[in-house]
Design a protein that fits this description.
Layout (H helix, E strand, L loop, with lengths): L2 H10 L3 H9 L11 H11 L3 H9 L3 H10 L7 H9 L4 H10 L7 H4 L2
Helix pairs in contact: 3-5, 4-5, 5-7
Amino acid sequence: MTVNDALKQLKARGNEKVRAQNAKNGAGDKQFGVSLGDIRVLAKKIRTDHPLALSLWETGNVDAQFLAILLIQPKKLSAQEMNRMVRSLTFVRVADWLNAYVVRQHPDKEALRR
């Protein structure tokens, strides 16, 4: 799957109600408003894909970042990549997911604190 394919699938699952709620909570306009359940279903379909995850993250789209978190392989991330991801966060719910699914599983947690 390519980044464009994934973005098209996310866009197709977008919901105005979710989009409005996310915006109210600080997500901004760079989102489709996909429910977290639908993101999980899509991630299960795609399965782990580290390169795709990194590319999705770089889009800055909130829904793409949620999906990236579920597709990424934490052990393959360098401390510099993790640092860049953390510093690029713009939405607290994405930060929560990143911490729960990626940071906590990273093998070099000490390097992340520097």
